[in-house]
Amino acid sequence: MATTEPTTPTTALPLGATVHVGSDAAREWWRDAVIYQVYPRSFADGDGDGIGDIPGITSKLDHLKNLGVDAVWLSPFYRSPQKDAGYDVADYRDVDPLFGTLADFDTMLAGAHDRGMRVIVDLVPNHTSDQHAWFQEALAAAPGSPERARYVFRDGRGPAGDEPPNNWQSIFGGPAWTRLAASSTAAGDAYDEPSPQWYLHLFDSSQPDLDWTQPEVRSEFEDVLRFWLDRGVDGFRVDVAHGMIKADGLPDWDGHVAMVEGSSDGDDAQATDPGAPEDGSTGAGNQGPMFDQDGVHEIYRDWHRVLAAYEGDRCLVAEAWVEPLSRLARYVRPDEMHQAFNFSFLTTGWDAAALRRVVAASYRANDEVGAPTTWVLSNHDVVRHATRLGLPDAGVRPNGVFATDPQPDEELGLRRARAASLLMLGLPGSAYLYQGEELGLPEHTTLPNEVRQDPGHFRTDGAEAGRDGCRVPLPWQADAPGYGFGPTGATWLPQPDSYGRYAADVQYGDPTSTFELYRAALDTRRAEGLGHGGLTWLADHADAADVVALRNRDVVVLANLGSTPVELPAGHEVLLASGPVDTTLPADTTVWLRA
Ligand code: GLC
């Protein structure tokens, strides 16, 4: 690339359309916060059992402080049989012994607060674990009982009731209904034969869906919110926030339901398809009578009131795979939640035109309701962006990568990931980081199938690799067993050999490292007020097909997504760059300039 003649010469920085106006008004902290997702079982292990835990998190708070994030979001650490890595909650008011105790939680929370960082916890309201006391009571109770009414039990179809009540599929694969066996229901059903009753689970059969039309379910969860608010948490990430209310009558639906949504035609289609939606949609939204029903909004209006009764700016962030962005914005209307993950952005391919479209559409939708946009590139459900952007077909968003699949170009993936992150962190709004991305960590793409644990792998009979590859324990020390994940070297999933190169300790203080790039970006972002700045496209670059070019306050952000270097405007100080730059901006590189 470096030997190719630069194209698109640019010496001036003329302004084009303004798509978002900044503000210096007093604002709630979450409006421009950088929030770091900790996936507890894979972050840091304090007790040496190979599974991360809360004392492990406490021991690494200085890493997060040093990185410069404003808040931490913890994936579930509640009592759980861990059938879906804790997203199957058996007791919403206790810490699973695997992760520690409530006292450990309080220590961690105080440690974060002492360092000026907020803490958001995960709330899983769509379903409980089948080991939750309520579900056990439901099994023991009779059909039609109040205990069964907390969940979605229905009689099966067909004369013998041996067909599921409707045709819905689980997001993890297979039917979304499980029939009660005679043995599990003898007390309640008093049948010798299998019960005619089935229960709904949009996810694994160990995750029965709650019936949110029941007042008791609503009051229970308001109480759970208060339990954690009283302990001092700063907010909640709400799991499957678009799924709790189902269409009346649970009508059949023949559409596609899967863990992995999104267009598999990917970025090429987005770039060249003249019909590519201006609204930034990528196909990432879940559809059907089980998602995004209008009734969910009433729940969030209630929860908004619960949070508002507490001091400080507590917040709710929606995990809602909903498109278009204008529809997602309904979750963050002034009396509902405060933020929603922007999965249209996450699922947009490495394509300048598509990124410009989704960025503009995000501001259009959220400015309308007065909510901040959020930006996110990786989380515990998707292939890490350092790998995604290096896959042979960068447009595809697979559900994990098998060892037998075409493997990513690691160097290209890292270069693009650094460029993508620097672009993201230059945008006004709030940004979510997933643990390890500050190290440039790739997915484990050669995990042996025998070690996989994601229910999505098993429920598809091994057709999908699943999400384990993005959940591999973090490398903290290059030269320690288990790369310093814990005191014994044990890790619940094997780490690839490459993780030594990415270990945190070899990155600290190295100005070329990804950790130092993130640290500098967060520092500059704060100093320049970029999180609450505005966004104006730069006309010349906006016309250049492969360059995303924008101005946010006194900073110009240029990202070259093309394959040829672009001449940098003369006379502008380079504040930060995702890779080496001279007078040109190489391919797959982002730069921040002083405007
Ligand atoms: C959300 C979580 C995912 C989990 C699912 C079921 O999508 O992010 O990890 O498997 O909900 O709770």
From TrEMBL:
<dbReference type="GO" id="GO:0004556">
    <property type="term" value="F:alpha-amylase activity"/>
</dbReference>
<keyword id="KW-0378">Hydrolase</keyword>
<feature type="region of interest" description="Disordered">
    <location>
        <begin position="258"/>
        <end position="291"/>
    </location>
</feature>
<protein>
    <submittedName>
        <fullName>Oligo-1,6-glucosidase</fullName>
        <ecNumber>3.2.1.10</ecNumber>
    </submittedName>
</protein>
<dbReference type="GO" id="GO:0009313">
    <property type="term" value="P:oligosaccharide catabolic process"/>
</dbReference>
<dbReference type="InterPro" id="IPR006047">
    <property type="entry name" value="GH13_cat_dom"/>
</dbReference>
<keyword id="KW-0326">Glycosidase</keyword>
<dbReference type="Pfam" id="PF00128">
    <property type="entry name" value="Alpha-amylase"/>
</dbReference>
<comment type="similarity">
    <text>Belongs to the glycosyl hydrolase 13 family.</text>
</comment>
<feature type="domain" description="Glycosyl hydrolase family 13 catalytic">
    <location>
        <begin position="37"/>
        <end position="471"/>
    </location>
</feature>
<dbReference type="GO" id="GO:0004574">
    <property type="term" value="F:oligo-1,6-glucosidase activity"/>
</dbReference>
<dbReference type="InterPro" id="IPR045857">
    <property type="entry name" value="O16G_dom_2"/>
</dbReference>
<dbReference type="InterPro" id="IPR017853">
    <property type="entry name" value="GH"/>
</dbReference>
